[in-house]
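tool_call predict_complex ligand=magnesium ion
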Amino acid sequence: MSNIALFDMDGTIADYDSQLRSDLAQIRSPDDAIIGQMHGVDLPDYIENRIDLIKTQKGWWANLPPILAGLDLMRCCVDIGFSIHILTQGPKRTKSAWTEKCEWCEKFVTPIAPDYGISVTREGEGRKKGEGKGLHYGRVFVDDYAPYMQAWLDHRPRGLGLMPMSHESLRFSPRQVLRYQPGLRYGNSLGTVENHLAKFREQHPDLLQALEHAYSRGDGEE
Ligand SMILES: [Mg+2]
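tool_result ok
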């Protein structure tokens, strides 16, 4: 099997959080609470209902803005020789997202890795969180969500996990996981793709070295 680098979408290469916050803010009344943390917390029902309405709008998923640092990391993986495979959770309640995630990849992943693969995954009801992602092979896994990373590492003790730096990811520190700067997001352009990529490379020499090692190590090697 070729050397595969698995990439999550939301929060890794597609800016789900910023878009959702911005859309929620547009329909917030002056008396509504401001939403801070959106993951792993119980939100009021009326907010959940608004989120559902936002996410079921046609084209919402297909038009999420890209996260430049995640795409820079993908370019680095391609340059080293990795095959890119997108590994993304299919939302349970928004089936249109399954198709639109593929459309998003056609737009943003194809220019970087034209021969990429994709798995839209979901574990069955009552199964272990992240089990769907954990089933997939790769030498490298890039994901922003600790439970998914853990589920993958459970099956890949020699795998290399990469996570964008965040409060959440800093609390989670298995030895196989390295962090990278989430960097500038869409709309804060540093200029050309080449300039942006050069900056990313300059900021992450250790991570690039770890990727080279993950690519070239023999099957029996740590
Ligand atoms: Mg994610």
